[in-house]
Amino acid sequence: MRIVLVGPPGAGKGTQAAFLAKNLSIPHISTGDLFRANISQGTELGKQAKAFMDAGNLVPDEVTIGMAKDRMAQPDAEGGFLLDGFPRNVSQAEALDASLKADGQQLDAVLDLEVPEDEVVKRIAGRRICRNDSSHVFHVTYSKPKTEGVCDVCGGELYQRGDDKEETVRKRLDVYHRETEPIIDHYKTQGLVVTISALGKVDEVTKRAMDALSGEDA
Q: Is residue 216 predicted with pLDDT exceeding 70?
């Protein structure tokens, strides 16, 4: 299957992408991984991306599209792939459509993870990270530490990252609504969009997604 995963920040796209890709035996292709791989390997596209990122600028669509096309052409993606974070706007979606069509391929589904905006803010703004080890993550509502402000694992101080503050989260949501959400309408005209609720436990959402992708009731 060839799938695009869409959803607002805090919808759990990365977590669901990993589970779905494993269940469907297809590679999980994320924008972040594309950038890191190309930059670390010193590819021409990686050098271009790094130059823009070092200057504090967004990586242009053509560079991101080039990376995605190269990755989708690799042998492990012949039987399908799950795209996470790409396309991020309608221009990229149109470029993806054209690239697949040129190869005699097409998308099978665009999986839209739906989460109420207030829940997104609650999920992200409630996160607390350990200063000693960023892999130690807690939440003021869903995964409270035994002692407020103290990491259960190592005793380090828990803090809220700047990116997780409510005002920043709402700005990220504004960008999503303005730039990325329109691709849902773009793909609805092609009859590809499958919308599911991303509320609940991780395994519940995964089952909902798998059922929806197989044509069963979500």
A: no
